[in-house]
Amino acid sequence: MTEPTKPILKSNWIRLLHYMVVVFIISLIVFIPIVIFVKAFGYWDIYEGPHPENWMSFIHGLGICLAFCFATYIMVVKTEHRKMNQYLITGSLRAAVSGFVFGTAMLGSFGLLSFSFGFIDFRFSDITNQVILDFIFFFLVALAEEVMFRGYILTNLREKLSNTQALIVSSLLFGAAHLGNDHITLIGFLTISLSGLLMGQVALLSGTISSAIGLHWAWNFIQSILSLSVSGMEQTGIFKPEFHSVPMITGGDFGAEGSFLMLAIVTMVIIVVARYPRILFAPISLPILR
């Protein structure tokens, strides 16, 4: 992996603050025309509207992706005069597929265990075009958030802190970014934060955020297939869940991330990956947890 060159802005904290400002400004520039367009049609809710395919989810996801990726490009290339690969921002189909399989196994385990123990009953409902749109939408969201959190922010923090400290801080920031979501709970915050730490682990181990993108993508998409809310955002997938236990176990309106069961699964996987990194991803020269 290419070692980062010295940036113009020497303070990591100033660079991080500068980056947040750039992300905010670019997001405004991207979303102002989108909001105007949507308001012209009289609705904004990306999961409700007159079109059954719900194409607004794609526009919303595309807006997030463009804003975050363009802001990161401006900061890395134009401001710091670095290369994107110095922030682990590279494309690898193999890493993305590995991450996707990994994420599918994790959320699939949650669904299987919930069903087996009678916490949630999943009944087949219907297959619609919404599945395709969700597949695209959650890819765009995963790409945007991984470029930001496991790309720029994690790499920036690693230059100032140890790997462990950088993973923890970037993961807490990732969790904090979801505090405004509907139905957020303490368990939800902890699970999302730990999922960010796990994504950081696999990104460092594989040397690319592609693996984290795949994991993040599957994490959200499998929940949508099961019609479980994704971080408080209601979904309509191909199954209809019926909850037979308390929200602390099922996740309730916040989704699988609000479940103590999912929190336990993520914690266990983090420990396994840290203890046996060669199981899934080729490790880099630096230790992930020390």
Q: Could you give a quick summary of the protein structure above?
A:
A two-stranded antiparallel ribbon has the order 1-2. The two termini are 20 Å apart.
Q: What structural class do you assign from the helix and strand content?
A: mainly alpha
Largest sheet: 2 strands, antiparallel
Question: Low-confidence runs (pLDDT<50, min 5 residues)?
Answer: 46-53, 283-290
Strand line-up across the major sheet: 1-2
Helix-strand sequence: HHHEHHHHEHH
Q: Gyration radius, to the nearest Å? A: 19 Å
Number of strands: 2
- Terminal CA distance: 20 Å
Could you outline the blueprint of secondary structure elements for this entry?
Elements (H helix, E strand, L loop, with lengths): L11 H30 L14 H24 L13 H24 L3 E5 L5 H29 L4 H14 L9 H21 L3 H16 L13 E5 L3 H4 L9 H16 L15
Antiparallel strand pairs: 1-2
Task: Describe what this molecule looks like in 3D.
A two-stranded antiparallel sheet has the order 1-2. It is globular and about 55 Å long. With 290 residues, it is mainly alpha-helical. The protein has helices at residues 12-41, 56-79, 93-116, 130-158, 163-176, 186-206, 210-225, 247-250, 260-275; strands at 120-124, 239-243. Helix content is 61%, strand content 3%. The longest helix is centred in the N-terminal third of the chain and has 30 residues, at 12-41. It has a domain at 85-279.
